[in-house]
Fold this protein.
Amino acid sequence: MRKNLYYILILMMWLSCDSGQTGLDQFFPGPGFEKGWSWEGKPIHYVPENLYDYINGEAELYHAYGFQECATLTYFWGSPDDTSFVVDIYDMGTPINAFGLYSIYRHPGYRYETIGAEAVVSAFGIKYYQGPYVVELKAGDSSEKTQGAMQAVAKLVSERIPDSTQVPNLITLLPLEGQVDKTLRYTANEMLNQGFLPAGLEATYRIGDEEVMGFVVLFDDAEGAKTGLEGLRLFYEESGDQFIPNSQMGEDGFVVKTKYHGYVVVSLVGQYLAGIQDLSSPDKGMDLLAKIKNNLKT
């Protein structure tokens, strides 16, 4: 009887203040989402200055993608010492930053579900993105009870987020044809591991029996893209890589044979650089390069 009264009181307390919640706290569902589950305390918040206190090993990565704030809350079954799982909600500022962070954790072999825009799901956790948010649920066990509760909370959080579950338009700059599913990534800065390059997109493509990486580097304007092209050209020159004459590239691009990424082709397209690396021969990449360039022009 006392135990039932305890849960009733907690539920009433949550409902009485739920309408007044703001910020990330408003996305957490109350204990009434499923009988027997409650939460431990109130959400704990982290900002850029103290994120290292929570995820020391990954804080730098989150900062690179524009991290704004995190709220974390633990749900438990029965008592805080019993079965539990943690829900983290990260505000990354923009939808493309949220996708970019999420995309780091994707792999073609993982299991996916439609929660938010897309979710990676395992027996011990769920991670998805929606609008400018990345949501992660982490469990200490893989019981059906815990997995069911995590699924319920993940979907309820998604329903409470007002932002669309649509993917950011920017990630459609790379064509889908030939693209290996779940390999598309957004890099927030230093594309191709070059400090002088800004953000960009990359994805694995299949050309025959080969896999190559197609990419787009995103500049604010055409002048910036020209400067980036010359910066890349200089980088390969200083690395001692061999430039290959190619009549299809013209002055606004080049082909280079590199030490570590096979043949690389790069072409200037307005405010973008389009390219492919890991080619066994330049000719094998020309059709894909043309598709990327056409995609950028439409």
Q: What stands out?
A: The chain is about 25% helix and 30% strand. The first strand starts at residue 37 and ends at 46. The first helix runs from residue 2 to 18. The chain has a mean pLDDT of 91.
